[in-house]
Specification:
The protein is about 55% helix and about 5% strand. A hairpin with a 2-residue loop joins strand 3 and strand 4. The longest helix is centred in the middle third of the chain and has 28 residues. Strands 2-1-3-4 form a 4-stranded mixed beta sheet, sandwiched between helices. It is globular. Helix 3 packs parallel to helix 5 and helix 8 packs across helix 9. By secondary structure, it is α+β, with helices and mostly antiparallel strands.
Length: about 230
């Protein structure tokens, strides 16, 4: 894995070569294993049994702002996932792609209505919940500028408590999983959010019984123990 990562830094020619490699090899996941979004991909790979190699890119590892990496992902973010000649970014769409490609219909059914119901929860994480976490986690816990302004932290914490409360009500009425009685890919980003909810040290959390039950239910899954509730927020 590390040799492949070093090769990515050799220049644009190598980046182009990686993006056009033929199918047949293992999935390549570029991104540090402690990244929230990379962990989604690693978890779905373990759930489905997809072989992959992972290379350390991102904060504290190989940079993502080089011309070589930006040719793979113009946003300079992880994960980047390479499947044969296909180069992908955006973790939720990658999770959906992998589940669809590998026919994991128990996690991501063929029925378009059922897919829409799953995807609406994933997109809610990507927008409303992620917005709240910028203040509550990036600002309030990691003290990252510009999110660490006291007003922004306070607003993020209030909004996070609100949206987790909405999820608690949904799980209480319709759980135990996000989609009811079975695990789907909707539970992958949501499970990581709930893990982060319990890992934020300076948040005055209300007791949400359904959220607590959901956290323990997720912990029964080996993939969540490995990539979710593993000591990382």
């Amino acid at each position: 894995m590390s040799e492949t990562g070093e090769a990515l830094g050799k220049g644009a020619d190598r980046a182009a070569e990686l993006s056009s490699e033929p199918a047949g090899g293992p999935l390549r996941v570029l991104g540090r294993a402690n990244s929230f979004n990379v962990r989604k991909v690693l978890w779905v790979c373990d759930e489905i049994g997809i072989p992959f190699v992972r290379e350390d890119f991102g904060r504290g590892f190989k940079p993502t702002n080089t011309p070589e990496f930006l040719k793979l992902n113009l946003t300079g973010q992880v994960p980047v996932v390479i499947d044969g000649s296909l180069v992908m970014r955006e973790s939720n769409t990658i999770v959906r792609y992998l589940a669809a490609k590998h026919r994991a219909i128990d996690l991501y059914p063929d029925d378009l209505g059922q897919r829409q119901a799953i995807e609406q929860w994933m997109d809610w994480v990507a927008y409303d919940i992620t917005h709240a976490l910028r203040g509550a986690f990036l600002g309030g816990q990691l003290k990252e500028a510009p999110y660490d302004h006291p007003w922004y932290v306070e607003q993020g914490q209030k909004e996070l408590i609100h949206v987790i409360g909405l999820l608690d009500g949904h799980l209480a009425d319709n759980g135990p999983y996000v989609m009811g009685d079975h695990f789907t890919i909707a539970d992958i980003p949501m499970g990581l959010v709930v893990n982060r909810w319990f890992m934020i040290s300076n948040l005055k959390r209300p007791h949400y019984a359904a959220i607590a039950d959901y956290y323990e239910l997720m912990t029964e899954r080996p993939g969540f123990r490995k990539h979710g509730r593993n000591g990382l927020p």
